[in-house]
Amino acid sequence: MISARNGGAGRARLAALGAYVPETVVTNADIARRVDTSDEWIVSRTGIRERRFAAPDQAASDLALIASERILAASGVAAAELDMVIVPTATPDHLFPSTAALVADRLGARNAAAYDLSAACSGFVYGLAQATGLIEAGICRTVLVVGAEVLSRITDHDDRATCILFADGAGGALVTRGDERTTGFLAFDLGADGSGGDQLIVPAGGGRQPVSGSPAATDGCIKMDGPEVFRFATRVLVESAERLLDALEISIDDIDLAVAHQANSRIIDHAARRLGIPAERLFNNLDRYGNTSSASIPLALAEARDVGRLRPGDLLLLIGFGGGLTWASTICRYEPIA
């Protein structure tokens, strides 16, 4: 599904960013002490050098709360002004209540509705699309979208194919109603191909294979067909971005900064070459944070802002892909409140 809109009053505005990563750093050398691998092997195949793991007493809501507080602090918006809290996550605290409801309560967002969103690594851009729809339909004025993951809890740390990739973190954005000057979100490209669902899956924990059925311990962990996911990702990143550019009748040269889901440096580099994105207009932090699923794009955006790579008024290309299999991309302008 691709959607492109013309400008006008009341558009949704990308108003603020924020992120949080846990303190514990896990290096490739740490992983090599448990499985047969090495720093050189991991870096050459993924681009990852280290990642962060949550403390034993931290869940997704704890990470999301800190990221949310930073988003609101950056915007000057009070929690009581929020109309909706959306938490894209593959690792919720519970099946219910929603992680979003827990975050909203702890944040003091007493006037906000709240729900979780399940689209794996595409979740943040899916959440931006939902926030845009809510605002431009007149249902909400202020929506918080914060992706939060504790993927270390559902990773088989003896599986070399996956334990080198996944990590923990949170990041998000505040989306508000703009004015007649707001550029906002120009287009979205959202999609899913459930026929590839078994290529990236956590088998146990849902109704088909409940935990109460005593599955094998590793059935509650991420299973991935790496070559198939790689083929899907390298294709869909390019095709999705091209559909957005074509719909808006602009070129990649009009994009000030591109941020893809931080999954694998070879996937990102392939897409950048195909699309013609120069290094100075591509932001990656995969080497230090690994694959944080729904948190990865906002975590990169917040860091790009902090180091001066993202400036007010910049036109962004954000591209996500992941389990489902899903993809979600948008072209939008960064228009911070403060």
How is this fold's topology laid out?
Layout: E1 2-4, E2 12-20, E3 24-27, H1 28-32, H2 39-46, E4 50-53, H3 60-75, E5 84-88, H4 99-107, E6 113-117, H5 123-136, E7 142-150, H6 160-163, E8 168-177, E9 185-192, E10 200-201, E11 223-224, H7 226-248, E12 257-260, H8 265-275, H9 286-289, H10 296-306, E13 315-322, E14 326-333
Parallel strand pairs: 5-6, 5-7, 12-13
Antiparallel strand pairs: 1-9, 2-8, 3-4, 7-8, 9-14, 10-11, 13-14
Helix pairs in contact: 3-4, 7-8
Structural description of this entry:
- The chain is α+β, with helices and mostly antiparallel strands and 338 residues long.
- The protein has a single domain (1-338), classed as Thiolase/Chalcone synthase (Peroxisomal Thiolase, Chain A, domain 1, 3-Layer(aba) Sandwich), CATH 3.40.47.10.
- The chain contains ten helices and 14 strands.
- The longest helix is centred in the C-terminal third of the chain and has 23 residues, at 226-248.
- The chain starts with a strand and ends in a 5-residue tail after the last strand.
- The mean pLDDT is 95.
Summarize the structure.
The protein is α+β, with helices and mostly antiparallel strands and 338 residues long.
